[in-house]
Specification:
Elements (H helix, E strand, L loop, with lengths): L2 H26 L15 E6 L9 E8 L11 E8 L10 E10 L7 E7 L9 H10 L13 E8 L2 E9 L21 E5 L14 E5 L9 H12 L2 H5 L11 H14 L9 E5 L13 E4 L24 H6 L3 H15 L5 H15 L2 H8 L13 H26 L5
Parallel strand pairs: 1-6
Antiparallel strand pairs: 1-2, 2-3, 3-4, 4-5, 5-7, 6-7, 8-9, 8-10, 10-11
Helix pairs in contact: 7-10, 8-10
């Protein structure tokens, strides 16, 4: 087992033990959590679970979203089921939750759905790293290509009448979000979604190790052929075949999407998001289609970004992130030129320091006093994050880190394309 993977496995084990002990401690002391202030500017999700919420199975619940004072409208209580959501984050005292509602709900201007995620962002003092990253990727959409990422909104959560902190209410990555065709068991080809859950999803070898099949439903049909074919080609095709305009990588992968995806990973320095924690999807192949569908990327899991790693430790601003696919793509001078041109374009707009700082400030204003209420609710001495780091300090560090990061990337991308003319 690689050293990093072993380190992470041990870390997950010990944080699970700590989280269990902390949860038991909370349950034993008297309930004295803060009530959500009457003047909050955030919606409040009241979640009532009929049993203790666990990861192994779903438990019955009722959810009701209450809008902040002054806002019109409200949401009736919706029945559903809830479970603890996430992998290593299950060891944290503040849990993330996955909600499945009995009836679709259209919450806070997002798409109508029965599937929702309440992201705890426990290792993220700013509470905004996921939202900031997903919003950035969606902002790169154009008439020629949509950039898919979940929409999200800040909420505060009352869990069984106890204040549980500020959360990010998120859509789920699924067929509807990615505009893919519905599953037809009689069709010869199907839309597919694969989630990279392990660093084996690095495109250096054939097969589908490191992935989970999310579409079609694996219980209905195991459907690995498209991914196996793609990985086989990326990992072993001769260079001439890989670059061939008629049958090469550009006929199998949306290159513009791939460029934007790697640029997002690089901008945010998502160390855990280039060989895992991403979504690879493709639509169904129709017999009469003029061109075959191509794979494209969607981002997922961006708490380890903007100067922090998955264990909340600080990281520097100088790191180039790649995998087997992007190594092959960057081996072509034409691709490098295209990549550098897109970076230069985005640096003048969405990826400018001023634009990113503005998004951070917007999120901070939206959170308002909820950031302090959340910090007071989850003041823990055993968590992985530096305990004395405040919301304001994390935000200041993020801004300083972004300025250093884009400066280094400007120089690094220029260096990598220096000989290309």
């Amino acid at each position: 087992m690689p050293q990093q993977a072993m380190r992470r496995s041990l870390w997950i084990f010990f944080t699970c033990l700590i989280g269990l002990a902390a949860t038991q401690s909370v349950a034993q002391r008297p309930s004295r959590a803060e009530a959500v202030q009457a003047g909050t500017n955030l919606p409040v999700l009241h979640l009532d679970a009929k049993e203790p919420i666990v990861s192994e199975r779903k438990v019955a619940c009722t959810a009701r979203l209450i809008l902040p004072p002054g806002a019109t409208g409200g949401v009736e209580a919706v029945d559903g089921v809830v479970r603890v959501h996430g992998g290593s984050s299950q060891g944290y005292e503040k849990k993330s939750y996955g909600l499945t509602l009995e009836a679709p709900a259209q919450w806070l201007g997002m798409r109508k759905s029965t599937q929702w995620v309440l992201n705890a962002a426990f290792v993220d003092r700013s509470l905004m790293r996921h939202k900031l990253s997903y919003d950035l990727f969606r902002s790169l959409s154009s008439v020629d290509g949509k950039r898919y990422a979940v929409a999200s909104r800040f909420v505060e959560v009352q869990l069984n009448d106890r204040y549980n902190g500020a959360y990010l209410l998120m859509e789920r990555v699924d067929r509807a979000l990615l505009d893919l065709r519905s599953y037809d068991g009689d069709a010869p080809s199907h839309a597919c979604i694969y989630k990279a859950v392990d660093h084996a999803a690095n495109f250096f070898q054939p097969g589908h190790e490191g992935y989970e099949q999310r579409e079609p439903d694996a219980a209905a049909k195991a459907y690995w052929e498209p991914l196996d074919d793609f990985n086989r080609f990326v990992s072993s095709a001769p260079d001439a075949d890989f670059r061939d305009p008629e049958k090469g990588i550009a006929t199998r992968l949306d290159i513009d999407n791939a460029i934007d995806f790697q640029l997002l990973v690089l901008l945010t320095s998502n160390l855990d998001g280039i060989t895992k924690n991403f979504v690879l999807a493709r639509d169904a192949m129709l017999p009469d289609a003029p061109v075959p569908p191509r794979f494209f990327f969607a981002p997922w899991d961006y708490d380890a970004t903007f100067g922090r790693n998955w264990d909340a430790s600080r990281v520097g601003a100088e790191a180039w992130l790649s995998n087997g696919l992007f190594e092959r793509l960057h081996g072509d001078a034409g691709f490098r030129k295209r990549f550098a041109a897109r970076w230069k374009q985005l640096r003048e707009r969405e990826f400018s320091v001023a634009a990113i700082h503005r998004l951070m400030d917007d999120n901070a204003r939206e959170l308002g006093a909820a950031a302090q209420r959340n910090a007071a609710r989850w003041r823990t001495l055993d968590g992985p994050y530096p305990d004395r780091l405040s919301f304001e300090e994390d935000l200041a560090q993020m801004k300083e880190w972004v300025a250093a990061r884009v400066k280094w990337l400007d120089e690094e991308i220029a260096r990598r394309t220096k000989q290309d003319g």
